[in-house]
Write a structure and sequence with these properties.
- It is a multi-pass membrane protein.
- GO terms for molecular function: transmembrane transporter activity.
- Residues 31-166 form the Tripartite ATP-independent periplasmic transporters DctQ component domain.
- The protein is an all-alpha fold.
- It has one domain.
- Helix content is 70%, strand content 0%.
- The protein has 5 helices and no strands.
- The longest helix is centred in the C-terminal third of the chain and has 39 residues, at 139-177.
- The chain is elongated and about 75 Å long.
């Protein structure tokens, strides 16, 4: 199984482009801020307190970028998965492989929903809580960015679930026309 590590879009929609380019921009900002901080420390430049914000800013931007990057991975079905058993099931009985994928997507959707609820609650409760380093950035702002990333992951997981459910139903409909499901052959 080869992994596509390009930034090519699997779906060519405006929403997908916004998510991809936002994640890329945030990672770029993280690299710039981190590089700036390294040069300041390496050259022992006196910043007179002017650039002290680059270290926490890089940390905060990286946190949000990670969640948007995870959304891009969910969109492309490139998240971490152990596919061995699923591939064997799909080769043996395709409908069973799709059923396992549907159940897996439901579990992912449930987890993301719970995580999003918790993030929304934390965002509201910590909206004015200072986290240091940058005076105008609060814990609530950081959790808002995390919540946006989780929300985008949830949207992509629901889209994938609907697609898998449609494929499973199409297989079932095709199988019931002939009176039974078509059985695959187990490769041994």
């Amino acid at each position: 199984m080869e992994i596509d590590q390009s930034l090519d879009l699997k779906r060519d929609r405006l929403f997908d482009k916004i998510v991809l380019y936002s994640a890329t921009a945030l990672f770029t900002i993280t690299i710039i801020l981190t590089t700036l901080q390294v040069f300041i420390r390496l050259l022992n430049l006196p910043t007179f307190g002017f650039l002290h914000w680059t270290e926490p800013a890089a940390r905060f931007v990286l946190i949000v970028a990670t969640y948007l990057g995870a959304a891009v991975a969910v969109r492309n079905n490139e998240h971490i998965a152990i596919r061995f058993l699923l591939d064997r099931l799909t080769n043996w009985k395709p409908w069973l492989g799709y059923l396992v994928q549907v159940v897996g997507k439901l579990i992912i959707i449930g987890f993301l929903w719970i995580a999003l609820e918790g993030t929304v609650i934390t965002t509201v409760e910590d909206w004015t809580t200072s986290i240091g380093g940058i005076g105008f950035v609060t814990s609530g702002h950081l959790y808002l960015g995390i919540g946006i990333g989780i929300g985008v992951m949830l949207i992509y997981a629901v889209i994938d679930f609907v697609g898998l459910a449609r494929e499973l139903l199409a297989m079932r409909t095709e199988g019931t026309d002939s009176g039974q499901f078509e059985e695959g052959i187990a490769d041994e």
